[in-house]
Structures are given as structure tokens and as C-alpha cells.
Write a structure and sequence with these properties.
Structural class: mainly beta
Number of strands: 20
Low-confidence stretches: none
Helix content: under 10%
Strand content: 35-45%
Distance between the termini: 23 Å
Largest sheet: 6 strands, antiparallel
Shape: elongated
Length: 267
């Protein structure tokens, strides 16, 4: 494989090569950058991997990128989970299990189902045609139908549904899994950025709980930015980046190795 220099400026690097056969029927599943004597931090951004084929280049492999912050109440509050325009959804004890969950109170005697709302707000608006995956666990202290709307900013209505149907909540944990594409109606003119739950469908007060919220979009960029701490590694590694010994004296097979950050030949 090609080498590249680490500098104090951002550089665009293209690396071409044929992976070394790892043997024993194993597939090549990683690329290893050996930093040698470099000590410090270097950053990698916008990584794209192409497979070279005869007659052209295949498109980069797609992946899924999270577009919300947090989503698990056991990790603390999330700015992406908002309740009734009052700020972040409250982190509280799980009403029917262990751990923490997000809670949204539902007021009694509403004039409209949207008088009490929970919002899942994305980090940025999503355009029509974007493919999304959404999953979460949900629970309500009573049984009620909940409409789910597509909005721009929280409260800016775009479309009557996200999932093609609403939720039938009840006093037990359920899980929603949905995968679909943002429609023109969902995106509106300013982009789809918020999933809104209209909670006040009954006159009684209640509490809606949600947790393990995951919202991802399909993306061809698998790594947005990675900071890599690099110190001279101790031990002996083969050219596939696998540690094979503590010292070169312990290596019995001749070949090229990385020993304490330097390339050496074992004869």
C-alpha cells in the first residue's frame, strides 16, 4: 500500500494498493496506518473507500450516520429529546424496569391532541430522498393513540405522518423500528428536522416515556472525523498490524515486521 506524510496542514490523500493476503481463508477487513516515530495527535476526516474493478470504479460503500445527540437516558439528558417546548425531556426512573428513561408529562383536558408534545429533533434538516432508520422503546401510563407528525423546527408542521401510522401506546414497553425515505411532504421547503408526537389524545393526564432512541441517515461517508493518538508502539507487529511478540528475538518466522515503531527484517 502507499505511504503518506503527516504534516501540520490538512491534506487530501489517495492511497491505492492491493491488500496482502492474510491467509487461512481470512478476509481483509481493515486498513492499518503505522505512524512510526510520530508522537502526537493526527486527524482523519471524510474517509471514503472505493473498490477498483475492471472498467471503472464501484461507488463507495454506504453506511449509517447518527443525526441526533444521545438517545439513551442512562447516559444523561439529550438535546435531541424535547418535551412540551420546556427544554430537554426529563430523565427519570424506568416505570416498568431497570435504569433511566426520558419522560414527557401529558396535561389533562386538552383542547387539541398537540397541546402536549414530545419532539425528536435532528442535528440538521434532512432533504427529500434521504433514507432514514428510526427506532425507540416507548411506554405510556394509559392506553392511547398517538399521532406522529413530520415537522421542520419543533412546532413547524409539515406532514401528518412519519411512519405511515401512529402509535398505540399502553402501560407496557413496546419497540418501534422504521426504515424509509423522506418524502417531499415531510421535507417541506426547509427540510425534515423533527418527529413530533401528539400525546394529548385523551382528557386524562398521563406520562409518556421513551428511550433507546436511534435516528440514522444513509451516508457514503463512514467516518466524519477521527482523532488518533499516536505513540511509538512497543512490541512486534506483522504487516497486517497484528501483534505477534513482545521482542524480535521471540519471532521465529523470517519476514518484515514493525518493532517498536520501526520496520525491521527478521532473517
Amino acid at each position: 500500500m502507499d505511504a503518506f506524510n503527516i504534516t501540520a496542514d490538512w491534506n487530501t490523500v489517495t492511497i491505492k494498493g492491493t491488500p496482502t493476503d492474510p491467509g487461512e481463508g481470512k478476509a481483509v477487513d481493515r486498513w492499518v496506518a503505522n505512524a512510526g516515530k510520530f508522537v502526537g495527535t493526527f486527524y482523519i476526516s471524510k474517509v471514503t473507500v472505493y473498490t477498483l474493478e475492471e472498467g471503472g470504479v464501484t461507488p463507495p460503500a454506504t453506511g449509517w450516520t447518527s443525526i441526533i445527540d444521545g438517545g439513551n437516558a442512562n447516559d444523561g439528558e439529550s438535546s435531541s429529546l424535547q418535551a412540551n417546548w420546556d427544554g430537554n425531556a426529563q430523565v427519570t426512573d424506568n416505570p416498568a424496569g431497570e435504569g433511566k428513561v426520558y419522560a414527557c408529562p401529558i396535561a389533562a383536558d386538552p383542547s387539541n391532541p398537540w397541546d402536549s408534545q414530545l419532539f425528536i429533533k435532528f442535528n440538521e434538516p434532512q432533504a427529500a430522498g434521504t433514507k432514514l432508520k428510526v427506532s425507540f422503546d416507548y411506554y405510556c401510563t394509559d392506553a392511547r393513540a398517538i399521532d406522529v407528525q413530520a415537522q421542520g423546527a419543533a412546532g413547524a408542521y409539515h406532514h401528518w405522518t412519519v411512519f405511515g401510522y401512529g402509535l398505540e401506546a399502553k402501560p407496557e414497553w413496546q419497540k418501534l423500528n422504521w426504515e424509509g425515505e423522506v418524502s417531499a411532504e415531510m421535507a417541506g421547503e426547509d427540510g425534515f428536522q423533527t418527529i413530533a408526537f401528539n400525546l394529548a389524545s385523551l382528557p386524562e393526564a398521563a406520562t409518556f416515556y421513551i428511550n433507546n432512541v436511534v435516528v440514522e441517515k444513509e451516508s457514503s461517508v463512514a467516518v466524519e472525523a477521527v482523532a488518533v493518538e499516536s505513540n511509538v508502539a512497543t512490541g512486534v507487529y506483522n504487516m497486517q498490524g497484528m501483534r505477534v511478540a513482545d521482542t524480535l528475538d521471540q519471532v521465529s518466522t523470517p519476514g518484515l515486521y514493525i518493532a517498536n515503531g520501526k520496520k525491521v527484517i527478521k532473517k
